[in-house]
Every structure is written in C-alpha cells, then in structure tokens.
Write a structure and sequence with these properties.
Elements: E1 5-10, E2 35-37, E3 45-46, E4 52-53, E5 58-59, E6 75-77, E7 82-85, E8 90-97, E9 124-126, E10 128-131, E11 145-152, E12 159-167, E13 172-179, E14 200-206, E15 217-221, E16 236-243, E17 246-251, E18 254-260, E19 270-277, E20 282-283, E21 286-287, E22 294-304, E23 308-309, E24 314-316, H1 319-323, E25 329-335, E26 342-343, E27 349-360, E28 364-365, E29 371-376
Parallel strand pairs: 6-9, 23-25, 24-25, 25-27, 26-28, 27-29
Antiparallel strand pairs: 1-29, 2-22, 3-4, 5-10, 7-8, 8-9, 8-22, 10-19, 11-16, 11-22, 12-13, 12-19, 13-14, 14-15, 16-17, 17-18, 20-21
C-alpha cells in the first residue's frame, strides 16, 4: 500500500476554527451532512422489524450480533429502550434493571438472530442504534467520513456508553470515537478511578484473517475533560475524521488523539451508538440496581463526506486563484508561479488534499498566525 504524506506548516500558533463554518478548518469536507439525525421529527417510532419510521435512519439492535454483545456485558438491547423524546428532540438510550438472569426469555429482532443460552448474566434492558448508512450506496455501511455526536453520558459504575464504527468478516476493524467506562479510568486504587471526566478513544485493526484478534489495537488514549468544563454527564461533542490512513479524534472541537498509516481501517463499517453495562455493574456477581433506570441522551448524530475531484489536477498561480479555489481532493495541486505571489490569508487555516502530489513552486507566503496542511492520500470515493 502506498505511503501517505502529511505536511503541516504552522507559524506562531494554531487557531481554533468554528466547526459550524467548516469542519475543523478543512473546507474539503462537504458542509452539508451526508447523514444527519437531530431527532426533531415528532411522532417517530419503531416498526416490528426494529427500524424507525418515518425516517428509516436506524435499527434498534446490533447488525452483527443482535441484542447481546459478549460475556463481559450484561444488557439486552430492546427497541422500547431507544426512546424518541419529542419534548426535547433527543434520542434516549435507556438502561433499566429487569432481574434475572434472563436466559433467553427476551425478545429478539427479526432476521435469524438467536439467543445465547450460555450467557447467564443478563440483568438489564438497554438501547443501541445502528445507522442505516449512505442511502445511495450500501444501506448499512460508511467508508470514510467525519462523524460527530452531541450527547450526555451516564457516568456511574458499570455504565459503558459508546459511539463507534465497526467492521467484520474475515478481519477485525473498529474505530472508537468515544467509550466511557470506569475500567478506563485506571486501577481501583488509582485516585482517578471512576472519574466522570475521563473517556477513551482508539481503534482496532486486523488484516490477517483475525489472527491475533484483539491484540491489534492502536492509539488507545484516555483524554480528560479540561479543568473548569462540566463532566461527561453534561453536553459535549465527540467526533473523528476518518480518511485514508488517517484518523483524528476531537472532543468539543479540540484534537485529543491521532493515528496515521497502514493500520487505519479502510473497509466499510457500521456506525453505532449504544449504552452497554460492563462487568463493573456487578458487585461480586450481584447486579447493581440503585443507578437504574438511567440513560444516554443524544442531541444529534451527523456524518460528513469529503468532496472529491480525484481525476483532475489543479493549479493555484496567485492569490486571486487561491481565493477562488474549490477545495476538493484533487489529482495534484501546484501552488505558485513566476512573477506572482500566493499568500495564505492572515489568521486562517487552509487544507489541500490530492491523490498524487502537492507542490509549492515559488513566491509563496504563510503569515504568522495562519495554518496550512498538505495531505496526499488515495481517493476516498
């Protein structure tokens, strides 16, 4: 696989760019979301096939494994626990203690999903939503994009909410845009254990027919909410840019993690938001009940896609041409010319993307306080 090139030129300082004007300062992203749900349509509900109406944006279970997810989680996902709240226009993933263990007494979605009779520690109902993807492409998957959620999290012991991308088959790929769990805050003896201000980001990538499985994890980082900001039980945005050989994670618009290279997933993946209950919800095998019912509350979820013109080269001979430049992934970009100067606007950020090369020939200026990135990568179409 061809290596990817990243060049970042900065003078003096890096600007904070408002995401409403452009996605984190990069005009190559389409400003109109390809996929968005801000849950502002009243009267939505779940059909018998567990897909929502009238929008058909979600399924209320996991496409890969149905309503349960491994022996280390203790919830059963149900469509009734994915609540469209018309009052404040949110999605609520509600966890409730049911009793049990349930042992295959729970409802299953259609489509051949089965229960696991060996899973004997299921005590809770909760909610998961899987996006139905790009309608004009595969109805279940996304390949590359900018993914963002605004949400409030449950932060008690055993709560395991997440927003993530998953791919499967004869390999393993996953990008965790965020996960929250007491297990990620350190050992029980650590002062930060159980902190409502620490979450995790990272990815898994295995291109070897699942040999090694979970060993292939990368960029596992545990960002912390800045001092003075509200903890994770209040509104925050979590997002990531997934481009060829590039993943950058953001919290409230600030970079908190980065990973580059050939260990970045490149196959289509399913987008999920869920509220699981991990092993910390058990006290010596006894389910905790005092926290429930509670919920993960989602204000919106959106996905943006890169604009692509990968078959055409571009030239920027002077500053007027830069002003008129259409930001897209080009075949190549040449900046500068004899007798003219290309000047990046003061106090701004520009990002150029191309599949083959980007060159700066001559007479080029980058003022102090401005930022420029030059990125070459395969066409993401």
């Amino acid at each position: 696989m061809r290596k990817i090139l990243y060049i970042c030129l900065m003078l003096m300082f890096t600007l904070n760019i408002e995401t409403t004007a452009q996605i984190l300062g990069d005009n190559n992203w389409n400003s109109t979301p390809l996929f968005i749900d801000d849950f502002d349509v009243s009267g939505r509900s779940w059909q018998s096939n567990w897909v929502d109406i009238p929008n058909a944006r979600w399924r209320a279970y996991s496409r890969d494994c149905g309503v349960i997810h491994g022996d280390n989680e203790h919830q059963v996902y149900q469509k009734e626990n994915c609540v469209f709240n018309d009052t404040d226009e949110t999605m609520e993933l509600v966890a409730e203690y049911v009793g049990g263990p349930m042992n295959c007494t729970y409802p299953l979605p259609p489509g051949g999903y089965t229960c696991d009779p060996d899973h004997t520690s299921l005590y809770y109902y909760s909610g998961e939503i899987d996006a139905l993807g790009y309608p004009e492409l595969d109805p279940y998957y996304f390949t590359y994009g900018y993914f963002e959620i605004r949400c409030k999290l449950p932060v008690h012991r055993g709560a395991f909410p997440a927003f993530w991308l998953w791919g499967g088959g004869d390999h393993y790929e996953e990008i965790d845009i965020f996960e929250y769990s007491w297990l990620f805050t350190g050992e029980e003896t650590d002062p930060d254990f159980g902190s409502p201000r620490i979450f995790t980001t990272g990815l898994y990538f295995n291109d070897d027919n699942n040999v090694g499985g979970w060993e292939y994890s990368y960029a596992r980082e545990n960002p912390e909410v800045p001092v003075g900001d509200p903890d994770l039980s209040e509104w925050h945005t979590f997002s990531c840019e997934w481009s060829p050989e590039r993943v950058i994670w953001y919290f409230d618009g600030d970079i908190v993690n980065e990973h580059f290279g050939e260990t970045v997933p490149y196959r289509p993946m399913t987008l999920k938001a869920n509220y699981a209950l991990d092993n910390e919800v058990l006290d010596n095998g006894i389910p905790r009940t005092g926290y429930f019912p509670d919920k993960m509350t989602i204000d919106y979820i959106k996905v943006h896609k890169l604009k692509c013109d990968c078959g055409n080269p571009a030239t920027i001979p002077d500053t007027p041409a830069l002003t008129a430049f259409t930001y897209e992934v080009k075949q190549s970009i040449s900046i500068g010319s004899s007798g003219n100067t290309v000047t990046i606007p003061a106090s701004s950020k520009v990002v150029f993307r191309a599949t083959d090369y980007i060159e700066i020939t001559q007479n080029f200026e980058l003022p102090a306080g401005s930022e420029m990135e030059l990125l070459t990568h395969p066409c993401p179409e």
